[in-house]
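agent: user wants the structure for C4-dicarboxylate ABC transporter substrate-binding protein from Virgibacillus profundi. delegating to structure tool.
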Amino acid sequence: MLLVLALFLAACGGNDDESNGDDSASDDGGEDAPKFLQMLTGGTSGTYYPLGGEMATIISDETGIETNAVSSNASADNVIALQEEESELAFVQTDVVANAIEGINSFDGNPVDNVQAIGSLYPETIQIVTSADSGIASAEDLAGKTVSVGAPGSGTYVNAEQILEVHGLTMDDIDAQNLDFGESTSGIQDGNIDAAFITAGTPTGAVEGLGATTDVSIVPVSQEKIDELIEQYPYYAADTIAGGTYSGIDEDITTVAVLAMLAVTDSLSEDVVYDITKAIYENAGNMAHAKAEFITKEAALDGIGIELHPGAQKYFDEIGVSAE
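agent: tool returned. relaying tokens verbatim.
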């Protein structure tokens, strides 16, 4: 009898321990919730890394899943890491991940089929920068000019190529130079190039630096061309560079932007991604980073050109937000 009683008590104790383990692992995301998540961001001096750190803290606090923000080489490398299941979450540009899903540009021959969207975060504005005395007032005026378009295959290069396309131009119609942002603005200052495509959050340091020595002009994109570009490439969104963003430019400039977004592998469950999405978009107001003001429920589906994860879709359906 004593042996039977001892076995019974041991069994009860084991059940209690197992139950407690399930509770701590599942939390809000259900039984299949992981205990840890890794969020790939970007370089430590950029926007992705500090903003990702704040998001990781919010996800950890709100879902009970310990989430770490990790520095990386940003969008293209992040997509590959998600594809190879080296991470679960990542910051990416909307156009880069759309290219990855389609298997085009830098992902030519290597389409990605396991990455889905949580939502967009903030605009990375496409700025056609020139000097005020260049005589360039529209994209059509770039014909025959020396223009920096970024490295071949880069996001900036693809943006330049597509904007030229909707204006009836190709790379063959300009003297294309493959320069980085600093080299581009230095070239404008020195008179070696006429204009530069720069895709970055505003204000962009390189453009601000140019404005300290040169009267800067930003070439606008008309609403007609904005609509045409978005229809053809849905990962773009309309954007405005507000007057006063750069010294000497007092009027608003209409243009387009790709967006920074959060992407996720399709291996995470609907419940887990629902909780992550809810945590981010209902707590963005608690983030201190300047770009957090753009992270809103209403704009979360702007520029998304890939499929939403079912968990994110569930959240946005619940709050009545849909893609336009």
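agent: one observation worth passing along. Confidence is low (pLDDT under 50) at residues 1-27.
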